[in-house]
Amino acid sequence: PANRFVADFIGFDNILKAEVVESSASGALLRLGGDGPLLRYTTVASHPPGAVIEVAARANAFHLVPQVADEQCFAAEVEGVTYLGDDVEFRVRVGQNGLIARISDAEVRSAGTVAAPAAGDRIHLRIAPDELIEINGSMEESA
Q1: Local confidence band at 26 (pLDDT 50, 70, 90 cut-offs)
Q2: CA angle 39, 28, 40 (to 5 degrees)
Q3: Model confidence, pTM
């Protein structure tokens, strides 16, 4: 997306600040929100370590997993839950970022929990590297 407005307009529910930890021709390793998790993302852009960028992710790109199983998984604290028919929308806190994850009810039930997670619970989410999309022109050099 060209900017935050376009990202929001075309359905990216989450716009997250991230610091580039390392970068290569095939992608980058990002730290979300200053003290958040490390995640890989696929990119053609190359950024120096320390650069701060914004990445966008759709709410339905996240998956609920029973535990942190690989580097694309992370823990999040549930701040709120909304039931939307066949989906459950979780508002969660990850480091300094708040984000929205929309998970199918069937996936919530198969994630190994007896009851659906509620506010205050800790859950584990996963997102594929190609589901994080950089917002063009968002790079800032860190001090």
Answers
A1: confident
A2: 25
A3: 0.84
